[in-house]
Amino acid sequence: MAEEAVLNFADFYDAELALHNAHFRVVAAVGHSDRVLDIGCGAGQTTRDAARAAEKGRAHGIDLSVTMLEIARRRSAEEGLSNATFEVADAQNHVFAQGEFDICISRFGVMFFADPAAAFANIANALRPGGRFVFMVWQGRDRNEWATGIHEALDPEATGPVAASKAFSLSEPSVTSALLETAGFTAIEFYEINEPVYYGPNPQTALATIQTFENVEKALNHPTATAAKIRARLLDMLEAHQTLHGIHFDSRAWLITGRRHG
Hints:
The protein is α/β, with parallel strands linked by helices. Helix content is 41%, strand content 24%. It has helices at residues 3-16, 18-28, 45-53, 66-78, 116-126, 145-154, 173-183, 203-210, 214-221, 227-239, and strands spanning 35-39, 58-63, 84-88, 101-107, 127-138, 185-193, 197-200, 242-243, 246-249, 253-260. Helix 5 crosses helix 7 and helix 6 (145-154) packs antiparallel against helix 10 (227-239). The longest helix has 14 residues, at 3-16.
């Protein structure tokens, strides 16, 4: 992805989740001296938020995207945040020092592990005993209008079950709680967040962005696809969600909190 496209996507993602981020920041309640680990930090907005709160501590963001982390480092430097650091790493198998952090945060970054049990156990090891976590994840696909709207526009004739998506892998509280408890977490709580996501000021801008989504790109490049028809359906769907303040979709997320045992 070209640098300009990466920058546009980074800005889109932060704008999309602005209302969610406000809840996330309040619940995270990062303290002045906290050592913070941010999983799947992307372009670093949540890491920078944490670094500003942890004036006498530090915030360390990890992600798999080299290009997103370059943006994160640049923006942190521009804001003078010397206590924000970034690293290309996978939380599933990265070697953290035991008890290195006081709190682990992740805004929609913990749903994509190949082995979630191993990942959460590794994250628990990185937290001090009694250390906190705050994760934001999507609820089920059928509770997120952005997901159902895009899916229906891509394949309006589909009648079978929708393919599983990692984006919704932690949507079921009982399953997710069991994973976290097995990993060594306790006092696990789920809080529902009902806020719209923002997809841009107008349908054309929104379409340019969602064409970069993996499922949309795959549909557009399929050998039997009529790309022009798919784009037209996507544009119609986006136009139906135009408001006075831009393109908005209803969404449901969970804010999950808890502590490392001990």
